[in-house]
Amino acid sequence: MMNRLCAGGRTALVAALLIQIPSVGRAVCASSATAAAGSASIQSAVDAAGPILAAGDHCVTVEAGTYAESVSIGGIDVNGFRIIVSAAPGAAATVRPPAAAAAGFFIANANVSLNGLRIEASAPSQYALLLSAASGCAFSDVAASNSAGTAVYLDGASNNSFTACALAGGGTGLDGAAGGHALRVRAGSGNVFARSVLTGGVGGLGADGGAGARLEAVSDRNAFSLSTLRGGTAGKRPSGANNFGGHGLYIGGGSNNSADSCFLIGGLGGRCAGGGGSSGGHGLFVDGGASNAVARSTVTGGDGGYGGAVFGGPGGYGAQLSGGSGARISDSALAGGAGGDGPVGGLGGDGLADSGSALTLERGRLQGGRGGAGEFFTRSGGRGLALVGGGSNLVSDSGMAGGAGGRGLSTAAAGGYGGHGLLVSSSRDNSLSRCAMTAGAGGIGGGSLGPGAPGAAINLDSDPLSLSAAALRASAENSTGIQFSGGRQSWSFTGVDFPDANVAISVDASRLDPGAAVSMVDATGSRAGPAYERDPYGVVDWINPSAPPGRPGRPVGTAAAWSIDWTWSAAAYAASYKVYNASNLAPLGTVTEPAYRQFGLSSGTVYGVVVQAFNSHGSSPLSESGTARTQAAPGQSSGDPPDTVDGIRIFPNPLRPALGQTAMRFQNLPAGARLRIYALSGELVRDLSAEAGGTAVWDGTDKAGNRAASGVYFIYAQGNGTKKTVRAAVQR
């Protein structure tokens, strides 16, 4: 599954990226220099470019060897060309900056390329690669690492690209020293990272692991594709404090950043034999910002660390969206990390936790992490999806499963609670459609103790939620489908399926206040209905109409010259509406909302329609007939056709029989006007005449009554001594 998700759409994605990445192409070296270990430095070879490049690139070839230097590239007018520093073919060229240097390569210039080099920093205060206000730079097949800190730092650098690179942060191992990030971007935008591996460093005692990539200080429009971003392991957790494994990707307030076809992996929590375990890092952590996106990716939280004396660390979330708005996640798998084991187990991480607004989640697979095992007390599994705060989120075609509760390791420890498939708490106006939610199993108890209680497929507080076409399942016996945690609101859920015999309680309304109302409309499955509910106050109502019980209201038309917009009051429980011609009940179209636009009409003419409502059980009676008169065409009185063919109108154009369109209308013609329809070959297809109202109709057939082929046709119109040629098309 993971391979399929990361491979999907790869060809199109790479093609799109090639448009964004600065293209080095075949270098045209107007000047060149060679660096050789022990004799000619890389810096001197770069300096040979001079202050202004000549009419072409400046190419530096780095021979095999280790270069103990710091290379600075800045203040060069590239004149529209590039400075290209490349390892010689097949050469292992390594740059190791002195401990006092800021970086192996310090670039404060436009249009610099590094190819095939290894850059190895080894001090907490330096970087393998440092870009300051640089743009248009391209790095390929570069391995940049720092054994004691952050590897690559882009400070105000934008529109640069990294392709097939390996970036790795490190850690000093000192108490309180965080692991270095593989990549840190500060106020940099439009950078692209493709087919690369980014690994954060390990944190010291009480410190966080480094991030695979950290975007901060409003870094926008950065893109990762076909890459792996892994957070570093957290250090051991000292008493009374908590620290985290590094996040795979951290976005701090930036907008329009994206990860496509990637692995985002949170770092592990640190193990601690004499204290508590550290928390696992998140695969993705977005702290504010807007319109960040993940597509075709696998996002995994790190497992919490083992706690030998106190408690295991919590598992990291697959993704945490903290505030912000407009995030989009599609075609991706998100999984929370397992809670760490210990005398008290750690909580399992959520697949996705969102406290922002206007999230769009499509075709996702979300899995909560397992709760940690405990000797005295166990913890619950993570939630598949937790919507906590914010609201107006849209989730469709997705699966959400709670994690299993922790396992008791002794006769004193009962199993932990199972996680919920979906939790909604203090998050308003969310909508879910065509989703499957699965309750997590309770953990196994120690000794003769029974298992912990399973979770619910859905756990809701008092906030509104729109739920339609959902399937509620369970991974263990005695699970709950929908569980309300309180409130006195009204809910209406349509088309919910309870297919799993493990769901013991379909709807648990025991915590709702009297006066609440829950309508279960068209529920299905073996556990649907009042026989499986828990409803002490009688607030749950199961409604299964055989068909829409009332007919739609009379249609009201708003007319233009050649169209009418019809609207009507909705029928209860209608899934769709069919619109018919009132005079002969010929079908005109089908819509899912109580509104229909009738096209291709004659001006100054009365039309009538009736409407019928449908759902999966049947249809309603026909509505009363609604009538409306189209307006007079511009420059005409009602019913008076024009004198020329200049204003000929064609609808629909193209004619699409596959969409139910049966004829093409030619309007705004003089009465009796002649229309000859020709194929591109010049063959006459049909010869028509306009009726008295100025309209001619072509049913899409030729003179012999055969269907005209798909293609473009010329229409030669003549009337009252005027002529005009127009085009029309048929798409079958």
Number of strands: 64
Give the C-alpha Rg: 34 Å
Helicity level:
under 10%
Largest sheet descriptor? 18 strands, parallel
How would you sum up the global shape? Answer: flat
What would the average pLDDT be, to the nearest integer? 90
Describe this structure in words.
- The chain has 732 residues and is mainly beta.
- Helix content is 3%, strand content 37%.
- It contains three helices and 64 strands.
- It has an 18-stranded parallel beta sheet. A 15-stranded parallel beta sheet has the order 4-7-10-13-16-19-22-25-28-32-36-39-42-45-47.
- A hairpin with a 4-residue loop joins β50 (556-559) and β51 (564-567).
- The longest helix is centred in the first third of the chain and has 11 residues, at 10-20.
- The radius of gyration is 34 Å and the shape is flat.
Summarize the structure.
With 732 residues, the chain is mainly beta.
Features of the shown structure:
732 residues, mainly beta, 18-stranded parallel β-sheet, 15-stranded parallel β-sheet, flat
Secondary structure: elements and pairs:
Blueprint: H1 2-7, H2 10-20, E1 29-35, H3 42-47, E2 57-62, E3 65-67, E4 71-74, E5 83-87, E6 93-95, E7 103-108, E8 112-115, E9 118-121, E10 127-132, E11 138-140, E12 143-146, E13 152-155, E14 161-163, E15 166-168, E16 183-186, E17 192-194, E18 197-199, E19 213-216, E20 223-225, E21 228-230, E22 249-252, E23 258-260, E24 263-265, E25 284-287, E26 293-295, E27 298-300, E28 319-322, E29 328-330, E30 333-335, E31 342-344, E32 352-354, E33 360-362, E34 365-367, E35 374-377, E36 385-388, E37 394-396, E38 399-401, E39 422-425, E40 430-433, E41 436-439, E42 456-460, E43 465-468, E44 471-474, E45 479-484, E46 490-494, E47 503-508, E48 517-521, E49 540-543, E50 556-559, E51 564-567, E52 576-581, E53 587-591, E54 595-598, E55 606-615, E56 618-619, E57 626-629, E58 649-651, E59 664-667, E60 674-679, E61 684-689, E62 696-698, E63 711-719, E64 722-730
Parallel strand pairs: 1-2, 2-5, 3-6, 4-7, 5-8, 6-9, 7-10, 8-11, 9-12, 10-13, 11-14, 12-15, 13-16, 14-17, 15-18, 16-19, 17-20, 18-21, 19-22, 20-23, 21-24, 22-25, 23-26, 24-27, 25-28, 26-29, 27-30, 28-32, 29-33, 30-34, 31-35, 32-36, 33-37, 34-38, 36-39, 37-40, 38-41, 39-42, 40-43, 41-44, ...
Antiparallel strand pairs: 50-51, 51-54, 52-53, 52-55, 55-56, 55-57, 58-59, 59-62, 60-61, 60-63, 63-64
